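Late entry, (2R)-2,3-dihydroxypropanoic acid complex.
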Amino acid sequence: MDKVLVTRDIPKNGLDMLKREFEVYVNPYDRNMTKEELIEKIEDVFAVIPMVSDKIDKEVIDRAKKLKIIANYGVGINNVDIEYATKKGIFFTNTPGVLTQSTAELGWALIMACARRIVNSDSFTREGKFTGFAPTLMLGKELYNARIGIIGMGRIGSSVARMARFGFNMDVVYYNRSISDKELIVDTGKIELDELLKTSDVIILTTPLNNESKHLISKREFDLMKSDVVFVNIARGEVVDTDALIDTLRSGKLFACGLDVYENEPDFDKRLLEFDNCVLLPHIGSATIKTREKMADIVANNVISAYQNRCPEFVVNREALCAAEK
Ligand code: DGY
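Prediction complete; structure with ligand written out below:
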């Protein structure tokens, strides 16, 4: 029986589908696999299902003698050396679409938590400090009619935009490399990055990580922001220069900051723990039961398609590897 390596436990529906066709090894630990473990286990597998935090680089790919598909459990694609995988004839797939709404909703959970100091208020209450209604207690920021600047207007950015417009009547502006598909967005305007940074009351990052977006938000960009901005990152940690973020927080400039992603996950910069106006989440953007089950279905189907010599539905390197089906 051919083998499949799953680097972290995924919902049962996907594993059941895979187990009908393959011998499946699931990382038994409640942590990411180390590079050594990955290299050892990948040697003789037909497929690997990595998480977006697993680096599948040239060294790992070279150790995989039978590998035909890398089926990322996630939409992000920055963790895999796609060019090298393609050169080796290995399919690379992801799970787009199904996590758009859950990730956008998480973005909104962070915006709300930051603007209304939800986490601080919860701690305050649990600590027995609630002595009765107080007019100046835990004052936050109102979102109605405020301006939200969305950096990266793909599917997730567009979904955040719709909620902003219809939920809070916000003035929605965005920055993207290109003008976004008009079908996806509502009543928004593409503006220059600097203008967005200078004028937004809420800034949210939803852009993919690539050479152009790495450290897109650094000291210069933080300096341009309003002093009481709510800053949220649900994209990738590397889009933000963490040192610059920490300096900005230390200067007291941001009203609040909400992070679901970090540079060098899971070893995020512990200096962030100093700030009680930061809400820190463990990369749970797509973490709803419905979405994670759909993602499990997709990765299993992608692997099974490759096994049956068909082009997987969500293949990223389609151009190069699915010539006949173009
Ligand atoms: C992804 O799929 O890329 C997300 O970051 C997971 O939440």
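The mean pLDDT is 95. Will revisit in the morning.
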